[in-house]
Amino acid sequence: MKCPSCGCENEEDAEFCKECGRRFRGFFEALDDKINIASLFTGLIVSVLVLILSSLFLLAAGITVTEFTWIPLVILIFIIVGFAGGLVAGLGRSDTMDGFINGLFLGLSILIIFGFLFGLALLSLTFIVNAIKTIWGLSAATEAGNPEFPGLIVNGIIFVLGTLSSGAVGGSLGSCIKRLL
Question: How many domains does the chain have?
Fold first, then answer.
């Protein structure tokens, strides 16, 4: 590879010019080599299918979701979704670290997509409930005064870390499986 600054000839995979020290590839270019977009989309599709199938399984099994069990169930389902999607995303890479990065990126994508949709639904629901309470003359609820609020924060942290780590572990395992095949 020829350096665009000084014209010195360098090795093809060099990050810096050996003559002038210019950096050839930035962080995002290097990350682009490690992420397989087709595997990520396939992993997202598998994640959505696993989410649908796990929800149908809960319905078919007759598991009743109560006020106290829905948060652990959602966390467990998203850990399974992240792992399955990460596993498929990792199959697109043969290097374990690349599989890890693909799985982690998939877990982050799941959090962003579903988090945005859930947040949008929750925000809409909050506005509707508060509007109804205002119309009926009831006081609006304040979440900060709720004694369960700290527990929700802890569950949220577990949800995020569980989804990210399960995606990364699934991606690493997927790349190991690809190497064995």
Answer: 2
